[in-house]
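User: quick one, fold this
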Amino acid sequence: MNKNFLAITTEKMTFNSDNSGFTLVEIIAVLILLGILSAVAVTRFTDNSAELIGETEIVKGHLRFAQMKAMNASDPWDINFSSSSYSLEENGAASSANLPGEGSATHTLPSGITVSSTINPVSFDNWGSPGATTITVTLTDGSNAASITVTKNTGYIP
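Assistant:
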C-alpha cells in the first residue's frame, strides 16, 4: 500500500477555528427572509381598496347572470349602466327577474364608486355573445380603477 496514503489518512484533520464570514446556507436563508419580508411590506403599503375589488366581482357575477339568462331565452338580456347603479333588462325593458343577491333588478353601487362601460347597455344574445366588439366595464373609487373585459363574440368574462 502507498505510504503517502497511510500518512494522509492517519493524520488528524484540524480546522481553523478563527473563520470569519458566513456560509452559503446562512446567506441564502437571509436572502429568503428578506424576500418574504419585502413581499409582505409591498402588499401592506399598496392600496388595494377591498370595497372596489368586491364590487368588481359583484358586477362580473351580474354580467354572467345576464349572459346566462340570454342563453336560456330567445330575447337579448342587458345590463344597463348609469354612473352609480345598473339594472338588468330583458329585450331593452326593465326585467321582472332580480339580480343575484339583490331584492330587485337594480344594483346601487356604494358611495364613492362609479361605473362606466365602452358600450351601454351590455347586451347578450342567445349564444351569450355581446356582439363583434370587446366591451370594457370600468369601476373607480376616485384613486383606483378596476376593469372587466367582456370578450367579443364569445362573451368570455375573465
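User: anything notable?
Assistant: The chain has a mean pLDDT of 87.
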